[in-house]
Amino acid sequence: MIYSVSPLAIVLFVVFVLFVLGISFYFGNKTKSTAGYYAAGGTIHWAVNGIAFAGDYLSAASFLGICGMIAFSGYDGFLYSIGYLAGWVVALFVVAEPLKRMGKYTFADALDSTFNNKGIQLAAAVSTLIVSICYLIPQMVGAGDLVTPLLGMPHWVGVILVGGIVIFIVATAGMTSTTYVQFIKGGLLIIFSTILSFYLISNGLAKKPSRDYHEFKSIPAVVSGGSVTSIDSPDYKLAGEFEKKGMRFVKLEKAGIYSWWKLNNKEGAFMLEEALSKTVAADGATLYNGEPQKAGKFFQVGHIGKLVKDGQEVDKVEGLDPFSYISTIEKSEIISFAQLPVPIEDGSDRVTVWYQKPTSGSEIMRPGLKFKVDKGATPWSKLNFISLMLALFFGTAALPHILIRYYTVPSAKDARKSTIVAIAAIGFFYILTLYMGLGAMTNGVLDVESSNMSAPLLAKYFGIGLFSVISAIAFATVLGTVSGLIVASSGAVAHDLMDRFLNIKMTDKGKVKAGKIAAIFVGGVAIILGILFKGMNVSFLVGWAFSVAASANLPAILMLLFWKKTTAKGIAYSILVGIVSSLTIILLSPEMYEKYGVDPATAPIPLSNPGIISIPLSFLTLIVVSLVTKKKEKEVPIKK
Amino acid sequence: MIHGEAAKLEKDDAIALKTKIGLILFGVYSLIYAGFIVINTLTPRTMGTQVFLGLNLAVVYGFGLIFLAIIMGVVYNHVCTKLEDKMNKPSEPGDKESAKTEVGK
After folding, report:
1. Partners of B10 in the beta sheet?
2. Which pLDDT belongs to residue A252?
C-alpha cells in the first residue's frame, strides 16, 4: 500500500514528541534516587496511576492489533479484548494488594521478599527480561507500521525512531516521566477513540463506503473441462490459469497490464471476480495489481456486499445507535479479502493474491473465523483457543511492567483503587475496539498487507485531521508501553541481577546509572527485533508474551501467596520451567515454522499458544520441588 | 544481602477478610469466564443466538464480562474501604501515628 504523507500529521507528531521529551527533561532533573528512578518515589496519586495503568496496558496490541484483527477476523479479534480485560480481575482480587505489601521496585523483589534466595533473584530477573522482550517486539513492529503512513518513512526508520525516543525518556527520568507519558497517552487514546467511534456510528452503514472506493469487476466466463476457455469481455485476454488450495485463479491481460481473478460459480454461472495481487519478480521488482506501487492501484478494501435493515436489502442505513450498528452488520453480508496461503509460482514471479470472500454478518459476529472452533475445527485447534484464553486471563497479573506500577503509589489501598480506575478505563476502551474494528471492516479502509493499520486508516476516512491526531496518539501508545517495558527490563538487569544477584556494590547514584545503561541496552535489542518481526499482527505476538508471563510468573506469585509449603527452590524452578516450556512450544509452533519458511503442517507441536501445557507444568513443578526441598530449606514464608 | 521489608505501610487488620472476599469474587468471575470459553469452544454457533436488542449471545456475553469486571471492582473496593475504616480505627481518637507500623515486623 502506498500512503500520502500528511503535513498536519507530521506537525502533530513532532509536537507530541517534543512535549514528551520536555516532560522527560523536567523530571530528569528531579530523579536522583533509586526509588525515584524505579518507582517514581511511590508518590503517584491513585487516579493518575489508574490512567497510567491504562496507558501502559493499552499498547499497540490493543489499539492497532485488536482493531486490525476484528477488521480482518470479526468477533475472534474481540475475544482478545475480552481476555485482556478479564485478566485484570486476577490482578485486582488476588494480586494487587499483597504484591504492593511485598515488593519494593520490581516483581522479583516481591517474590524474593520471603526468602532472599539467589535462585529466585536470577529466575525472576530472567523471566522479566524475556517477557518484556516478547512484549517489546510487537510494540516496535507497530511503531514501524505507523511511521510509514504518518511520515512516509520505511518500517525500520519507525522502529529506530521509537527506540531512540523511548531510550531517552527512560534514561532521563525513569518511572516518573514514564508515568506521566502513560497518563497523557492513556487519556488521549480513550478520548479520541470515543470520538472516532461516535463519528463511525453517526455515519451509519453503506454498500459503497466512499465515492472513490474501487468498483470490483466481475466478468462472465465459459468453463470447459475445469478450465476457463473464454471470457465475456473485449478488453481482457486470458494469460494464464492456476489452481491453488482447491480454488482456481485466472491471469488476465489488458493493455500490457496483468491482473488476477478468482473463478466462482454463482448459481450455475461461472464468473471471474477481480482480486488484488502483489507480484515479486526474480530481480526483486514488485508490482501491485500489475503496476508499480506509485500508480496507486493497490486499493484499500472492505465493504458490505448485502446491507440488510428490517429484512430489506438497502444501499445505506443512517440513524444507527451502538446496538443497531452491530445488529445491522450481523444481518448483512460483508466482502472481506482473504489471502491465498501459498503464493502462486508464475514462471520466475511469485504472486500473492487476495481474493473477495463474501461472509455473512452472523458468521463475523460469532467465534470461528480466526480460531478454528467451528468449521474445520480439530481437538488441537479447540485446545489452542482454550490455551490462548487461559493465557490472556492469567497473563495480565504476571506482566512485570504492569506489576511495577503497584510500587508507584503510596499504599495498598491506592494500589487497589488505581486498579479499579484501570479496569474501568481499559474496559470502556475495549468495547470501542469492536466498533472501530467493524468500522474498518466495512468502510473500505483496509490495507491487506497490514492489519495493524486498520484503526488509523479508519480515522483517515473521517478526515486528515482525525487521522493525524489518532496516528500521533497511536505513536504515543507505543512510546508509553515501550517506556514501561524498558523500565521493567532495566530494573531486572540493574536492580535484580547486578545489585541483588551479583551483589555488586554500588552507590544509590551508581544504581540509577546502571539502570539507565541497562535501558539503553534493552532498547537496542528491541529495535533489532522490531525490524526482524515486521509484518506480524501485533496482538497475536502479544498473546505470546501473555503466555510466557502466565506460565513463568503467575504460578510463583499465586503459590507464594496462598500455599504455605512453597519453597525458594520451588519458585525458582517453576519460573524456569514456565519460561522454557512456553518458549519451546512457541518456537516449535506452526506460526514460527511459517516464519522460518518451513511448511507449518510439519511443526512438531500443533499448538500456537502454549499456556494450556506450560501453566499447569509450572504449577506442578513448584508443588513437586517445594515438597521435595521443604525439609532442606529453613525459610518460612512471611505471614500472608 | 537481606532485602528487608518491602515497603513501609500502615498496619491493616482487614487483610485476611479482604483476601477472602477477593478470592470469592475471583472464583465467581472465573466461573463465568470459564462458561464463556466452554460455549465458544464446544458450541460456537450458540453464540450466534440473538438474545438482547438484536445483539447475539457472543456480543452480550462479551460486553457482560467487561461490565461485570467493572461492577465487581467497584463493589469490592466499597466493601474493602468499609472494612478498613471499621477494623483499622486508631487506638485513641486522633492518634493515627500510633497505628503506623511496618508490615512484617
Report:
1. B100
2. 92
